[in-house]
Amino acid sequence: MKVGVVTFPGSLDDVDAQRAVRLGGNEAVALWHGDADLKGVDAVVLPGGFSYGDYLRCGAISRFAPVMDKVVEAAKGGMPVLGICNGFQILCESHLLPGALIRNDHRKFVCRDQLLRVENNRTPWTSAYAEGQEIRIVLKNGEGGFVADAETLARIEGEGQVVARYLEVNPNGSLNDIAGVTNERGNVVGLMPHPEHAVEELTGCGLDGLGFFSSLVERTFA
Ligand SMILES: NC(=O)CC[C@H](N)C(=O)O
Which SMART domains match (predicted)? Predict the structure, then answer.
């Protein structure tokens, strides 16, 4: 599949995401925040980083980037979209995902190897994992606390929209230990930790993140 990776001013992990896309067996296509079209890609990754310097709130300005009009339109049409960390924040700001991400409860930037449980493997980004599989990937952010109102939280729990949950410690105060969620349709996924940094042995971070990028080729979704 052709997977577009969007670079915003201040993106940090766009090149790592492109590499992970290729290691997962897909073609990576570089997209720029000012692009007016998606260059014929089949899926989109919004990478991690500090887009627009995190001004106002993380992701609050990126949401208005020209390319996001097309990403929102394509996501509503069913295109697989993965937002990693800052990308997750942008997806929440764009209302493609429920809830919001706020400052870590301890008010500090956190960087750690984080154990997660994959709760939902029925998305185009997680089908390579077994339901309940435990994976360890790096977490690094300042605004990673997932929050939602009580009704929304009950709905996403009830509908199985929690994609991954923190194990061992809750590193940021996220409600219900939520590390990642999907939309109702299941094509849009946001994840706070970074699977693109755990895709090859060379970095010493293991391979637990590769499934997010190989899932696309391992199954076909309607
Ligand atoms: N690693 C990231 O993508 C960081 C996201 C955002 N800048 C934050 O600190 O929360």
Answer: GATase_5 (SM01211)
Gap between the Cα atoms of 48 and 194, Å rounded: 8
Tens of pLDDT, residue by residue over 40-52, are 999 999 999 999 9
Q: Ligand 1 pocket: which of 140, 191, 192, 197 to mutate (most atoms <8 Å of CB)?
A: 140
Enumerate the H helices of 24-175 as residue ranges: 66-76, 86-93, 150-158
Task: For domain 2-218, say whether CATH 3.40.50.880 is its number.
Answer: yes
Q: How many Å lie between the centroid of ligand 1 and the Cα of residue 66?
A: 21
* End-to-end Cα distance, the chain: 14
Tokens at 74, concatenated: 């394509």
Task: State how far the Cα of 212 lies from the Cα of 123, in Å rounded to an integer.
Answer: 10
> Which ipTM value was assigned to this complex?
0.96
> Ligand 1 center to residue 4 CA distance, Å?
20
- Confidence (pTM): 0.97
User: What residue spans define the domains of the chain?
Assistant: 2-218
Neighbours of 3 (CB within 10 A): 25
| Tokens read off for 56 | 């106002």
Q: Please check whether residue 33 is in contact with residue 46, taking contact to mean a CB–CB distance below 8 angstroms.
A: no
